[in-house]
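Field reference: sequence -> structure
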Amino acid sequence: MPVNKSSHPLRAHLEEIIALTDTEFDYIASFFTHTKKRKHQYLLQEDEIASREYWVIKGCVKSCFYDLNGKEHILSFAMENWWITDYESFIKQTPSKLYIDCVEDVELYYITREDREQLTRTSHKMERFWAKKSKFGRIALQNRILSLLKDSTEERYYQLLQQYPSLFQRVSKKLIAAYLGVSRETLSRLQQKHK
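Structure field:
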């Protein structure tokens, strides 16, 4: 069945940064694989080598690690139009320090490390796309670290609520607390205060 290229979700996403002809998009799309995963399925587990980078079409996933006491710490959530992998493992091909799992049923595209390298070599537009996405990712990470270092728990909660209000309807309080680095009791107090 032919795909309507102009309404293809991956094309729409790429064209937020780069303009593509149908031929260019067909070539780029040939490197990506479509998949669906169920809630609680892993995309990556600790000590595996990250061989894929995922783009979320629909649903929500999280990247996290567990400390020596078994406490979960969430580094990030990835919802629609976000990219996710363990980038250190993906780039260096070292064992992952993270788990990436599905918070909801998800629909994704993924590209393997080898295919991404080939696509970057053969498509200057995709090289530009990933360079820009990488810059945005570094900015977001820097802002998250700065917020953890300088903002109060209440300020971090309010920022998350302002930036991603739908997240609070989509994921459990336990996961929001793990992302903010607070107890569920603290989170409940903050939610009562901001009702």
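Note: The chain has one domain: 5-150.
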